[in-house]
Amino acid sequence: TISTRRTEFENGIFTCAIGNLPLFATSDLSIITTASSGWLSFYKTISSDHIRLIHPEPGAIDSRIEVICARSRCHLGHYFGEKKTTTQGKGEGCYCINASCLNFIPEQTKNNKN
Length: 114
Known about the structure:
single chain, mainly beta, six-stranded antiparallel β-sheet
């Protein structure tokens, strides 16, 4: 998993730490807050087929949309559909993902596996 002390990343992808599906790219990284909170924010996913958005039941106290890995069904974080100022008008919205749920694969490593 990703160190919660990390504040920058080289080019690469983030995969689910359990399901190993590619979920997010560094090019879509909005905010790195791992040094203070352990959360990363992304503009969009690599593939919408690799995640599932779980909407809360009507009337639920917690109205956040849960983000889970499509393969492992692990909880990754939450999705905020409104384009927040952090996305600067890019992408689909804001995926706030717990860094401990992800593995990071640098671009060089990814290319060497092909």
